[in-house]
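2024-03-11 09:14:02 DEBUG pipeline.ingest accepted 1 chain
2024-03-11 09:14:02 DEBUG pipeline.ingest length=487
2024-03-11 09:14:03 DEBUG pipeline.predict start
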Amino acid sequence: MIYLKLSEIINNLKIIEKKISPEVQISDLVYDSREVMPGSAFVCLVGAEFDGHNFIEDAIKRGANTIIVQKKCDFPGINVILVEDTREALAVMSKNFFKDPSSNLITIGITGTKGKTTTACMIKSILEFSGQKAGMLGTLGAFIGERVIELKNTTPESYDIHKYLRLMVYSGCKYAILEASSIGLRDHRLYGFNFDYGIFTNLSSDHIGGKEHKDMEEYIHCKSKLFKKCNVGFVNYDDANTSKIIDNHTCKIKTFGFSNKSQIWGENIELLSGSDYLGCKFKVHGEINLEVKISVPGKFNAYNALAAISVCNYIGIKDEQIKEGLALAKIKGRLEIIKTSEKYTLIIDYAHNASGMENTLKTLREYKPKRLITMFGGGGNRPKIRRYEMGEISGKFSDLSVITEDNSRNEDVMDIISDIKVGLRKTSGKYIVIPNRKDAIRYCIENAKEGDIIVLAGKGHETYQETKGIKSPFDERQIVNEILSNM
C-alpha cells in the first residue's frame, strides 16, 4: 500500500480554504465512499445522479481522515479541503499520488464520435509489431501487458487513469493509448494531463440529449479540448466539423483523409471478402507512400487506418512495420467476424444507435450480400427516439430485421420492442420479433442461407446482459459456439 503525506498529494492544488495537518499520511484517494479504507482521502464528486457530499459521514465512519469538498462544511478532527471543483482536484491529486506516470510514457489521445476504439487498436497493433510495448485505455478495457481490466467508462475517472498509467510504467510500456471521450474531457477526467499526440476521427450528433450534451456546440467544445492539451494533433481533413474542433488549438496540426489536400491521404479503396473475412485495401500518399490492407470493412475504417498511419509515421515507425502491423489489427466487437460456416458470414458489432447502425449496414451492403440480416434491440432507460431511428435504419437497409433484447435495464423488453417497431413501420422492411436474445441468435444461424451476411448488433465487446439492475454473463461469441455445437 502506498502512503504519502497530504502535503505531497495537494501540491499545485487550487485551494479556497483548508483545515489540515499536512504531515498526515494518506493511504489512498477514493471517490466512492463504499471503497474507503482507514487513512483514505475522500473526494466528493458531484455528478448527474449522485453527490459525494451526501456520503461524507459514511466515508468518515469507514476511516477517511481527509475530505475534499466543493461545498463548505466542517467535521471536527477531520482534514477538510475546500476547492472550486472536486473533479479538477481529483485529477491533480491523482497525478501527485501516482507520481505523474504520464511523464514516463509517450501518450496518444483519440477523440471523435466513432472510430476511437478501432483507431486505438490499430495503433497498438502497429506499435507492438514494431517491437514497442503499448498499453491502452478505452471502451474495450485497460490493456496492461497481458492483463485486461474491465472499465465502467470509455474514459475512466482521473484517479483510475493515473493508476493504470502507473501500472503500464511498471509493466515496461513505452506508449499509452487513451480514448478521450467528450464526457471524459468535459468532466475533467483528463484535467492537467498533456498528451504527446492527439487524434480527431469524426463527429456526428450521436451524443446530444439526455445526460450527455445539451447541444452540438457543447459537444464540439468538449472534443476540442484535446487539441489544447497535446503537442501534435492529427485531424480528419474531410470531416465538416474539423475546423471547429481545432479552433483556438495550441498544438501543431497534421491532417489525414481521402482528399489530396491532406498531408497523408488515401485513394483507390478495393473491397476484399470471404466467408470469414471482410476488409479492404487502398493506397496511401503524401508524407508516406504505401499500399495497405485492413481486416475490417468499409471506408470509415479506412479513415481510422489513415489516422493510425499518420501518427505512427510521425513517431518514426518504419513503412513495412506500419503495413504489417495494420494488417494484423483485430478489433473486438467492431465488425468482428465469427467463423461459423463457409456459406454465410456472421458478424458481431457494437452499433447501438442509428448513426452507428447506418454506417455498419451501408458498409456491409457494399459487399453485395444475398441477404443482409440485422439482429438488434434497444437499451432500456434511454431516449425513445433512438429506438425509432434504429428501427427505421434497419428496416431501410436490412432484408430482414430480427428484433430482440439488449440491456433492457429497468424497462420491459416488449415496450422497447414496440418503440423499435414504430421506426420499422415507416419502411417496407421485413421483420420478426424474438424477445430472448439467445433465441434470436439461434434463429439467425438456423435460417441462414448461402451468401447471407448476419449482423448481431448492439453488444459488440460486451460480455453481459443487464436486466432489472442485474448484469448476467452474456458473451455472444460463446453463445454462437454453444448454438453451433448443439446443431
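2024-03-11 09:14:41 DEBUG pipeline.report The chain has a mean pLDDT of 94.
2024-03-11 09:14:41 DEBUG pipeline.predict end
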